[in-house]
Amino acid sequence: MDETEFAAYADGAWPTLVRAAVFLGCALPDAEDAAQATLVKCYRSWAKVTGADNREAYVYRMLVNTVRDSHRRPWRRERSHADVPQGRAEGHDPHLAVEVTDAVHRALDGLSKVNRDVVVLRYFVQLTEAQTAAALDVAPGTVKSRLSRALAQLATDHHLADLTGRNAP
Fold first, then answer.
1. Which of 24, 83, 134, 148 has minimal Cβ neighbours within 10 Å of its Cβ?
2. pLDDT by residue (tens digit) across 31-74?
3. What residue spans of the chain are helical by DSSP H?
C-alpha cells in the first residue's frame, strides 16, 4: 500500500467528508467522527478503494453507511452544539450565516432519509447521477425520481421560503 497516496487522498477528502456528514444530519463532532471512521475503513481496504470503478461513489457509500450506523446507536440522543461562528470578513454577517445554516438544516430535516441522502450526495458532494446511484446502491432512475420529489418539497419548505422572503429586494 502506498501510504503517501492514501495520506494525500485523506487530506483532500477530509473537509468534504465532514461537511457531507453534517448535511446528512450529524452534528459537527459526530460528522468528524463519521469522516474519520470512513477514512479508517478506506485505509483498511485501500486496495478495494483504489480498484473501484468509481472511487468517489465507493467512499461516499462508506460515509452514508457509517452515518446510518451511528444513528442506530443509543448515545445518539445526545446533541452537542457548536459555538456560534464569529464573522470577521467585511460585509459578513455572522447572524445571517447562522440563519442560513439553520434554515438549510431544518429544510433537509424535513426530507425523508433516502431523499436527503440523494440531495446531499448529488448537489453538495457533486457526485454524478451514476455515482450517486452507485453510492446508495440504487438505480439511476431512482436517483432522478428521489431528487425530483426532494426538490419539489424543498421548493415549498417554509424554512427556506422565510429565508428567501427576508432577502428578497
1. 83
2. 999 999 999 999 999 999 999 999 999 999 999 999 988 766 55
3. 3-23, 28-44, 46-51, 55-71, 94-109, 113-119, 129-136, 140-155, 158-167
